[in-house]
Predict the structure of Response regulator.
Amino acid sequence: MRILLAEDEHSLGTWLCRALEHAGIQVEWVDDGRLADRALQRRDHDALVLDLGLPGMDGHTVLQKLRERDQRLPTLILTARDSLAERVGSLNAGADDFLAKPFALAELEARLHALVRRARGVEHPRIACGPLAYDVARKQFLLSGEPLALSPRELSVLRALAHHSGQPLSKQQILDRVFSDEQDVQLEAVEVLVHRLRKRLDGKGVRIVTMRGLGYVLEAE
């Protein structure tokens, strides 16, 4: 999962980036509403965590512009304004969920996963494809019930593909998810990682297929 975090409180933003990425959620963080609006038009995200009190452009306006563009990105409002009127107003404006500060990290993670599952029409939280399944608690893949030995980068690529199993992900989309914190990484790095994963999955009931012009798809054999 890759989210956009729009939060101007730097201590909270720094902590959330580290904590969520440790939990396997890629985070792009911006601290200004105008930057959030640009990022939403430019980048590929699975969900938006939006603070209402942003400088430059407030969260209400960011959300309004998002919905005016008919972008149906799951959006969770994260704010200290915990009133019934604020909750109702945000939900009526197009937000999908609302979490008041202070909050528990585990609840934020659970709400994000639930939002993304609903957006994709998935009825259960299990990330799986054929005999391959991701154990969220242990942060590792199981293949036919046995742990699959992967490097951190291989795991990140496979997790991105598993989140979208049956749907193609382009090299650039994978690059954005796996190397979001690095500069000057070339698309060839994705090709190398996919090649390694194909060797590990060969003959195991699941494969990575290349769809010309679209990208890579994880599918059961």
Remarks:
- The domain at 126-220 is CATH 1.10.10.10 (Arc Repressor Mutant, subunit A).
- The mean pLDDT is 87.
- The chain has eight helices and eleven strands.
- The first strand starts at residue 2 and ends at 6.
